[in-house]
Amino acid sequence: MPAHIRARSAGPGRGAVKRLAVIVACAAAAVAGIPATAQAASHYPVPYGLGAALAHFGDSSSPAGANDWSCRPSAEHPEPVILLHGLTATQAENWTTLAPLLANNGYCVFSLTYGRSAALPSPLNGVPGVRSMIDSATEELAPFVDRVLAATGAAKVDFVGHSEGTVMPRWYIKFLGGADKVAKSVNLAPINNGTQANGSGLLAGGLGAVGLWEQAQRLAENSGAPITVELTTGSDYLNAVNSGVAYPPGIDYTFLMTRYDEAVVPYTSGYGPVAPNVTNIVVQDQCPLAIFEHNGAAFDPVAAQDVLNALDPANSLPVDCSGLPRNS
Fold first, then answer.
1. Burial code of 49-63, b = ≥16 C-beta within 10 A, e = fewer?
2. Residue 222 CB-density burial (10 A; 0-12 exposed, 13-18 middle, 19+ buried)
3. What's the pLDDT score for residue 187?
4. What count of other Cβ atoms lies within 10 Å of the Cβ of residue 35?
5. Highest mean pLDDT out of 46-55, 125-134, 205-214
6. Which terminus of the chain faces fewer neighbouring Cβ atoms within 10 Å, N or C?
7. What CA–CA distance (Å, rounded) separates 312 from 315?
8. pTM of the full structure
9. Which residues contact 202 (CB under 8 A, 6 or more apart)?
């Protein structure tokens, strides 16, 4: 390593049983004098599509269903879920669909907006996800995970990431002790092996051929926006997280890709290795008409069902290719 590197679609019967169970649980808790868990208290609307995200453009507040610090995980879902947004997106933009969907399904859900760079001039210093992913993992994600664990009493968390949020936490897992604190990692539009979008891969290869790739990476770091090269295939960051044991066997990984990804080029860069703890899914292999691009991965009902199944494989449901939205 270089020295400078530092909505589940439940059937009517199951839905009725689930609602009855929630009512009974709340009543029992009230009789016993125990506060009902936060996830049993609310049912949130679940919007789908990019339009819902645009309505929250620039909004760094918590998405619906997330960051209720009184939430206590249930026996059914013992790990709280931490949502990790993509490049330039805030938590409210990225998780308008999945935060309320997961909360409706009984999860304790948490999210943050990370990666703003104080080294950039205004207004660029307000753009999320542009600082070094090493700094984001070390100074923002690691303490956030510890805060969630302390608040919920859980032993481990689950990650659901989108875009940059699929690769930034890999530094935390590999180098900051996260392998002992994460149970599942579910990844939408993942960037495991970097992207060559907009010719970035060719540029990196050309600079490497003339011995200037390392200098280009240092220049990006000094600019205040090192993310511009960290996500490029062949970057020092990706070489570091992909070296050695890249996907610890104690974590269950799911990688959800779309053939229409214009940001992760090629989309197959999202594949994880063939391993017992790794599941790779190209959504169009399940549902050919599930047509969505990179950003749309976080707002598509088919991908959303895959997320639910990955978090709770024991109770997974068949993916509904109709594209009908689901709220619970």
1. ebebbeebeeeeebb
2. exposed
3. 98
4. 12
5. 125-134
6. N
7. 6
8. 0.83
9. 196
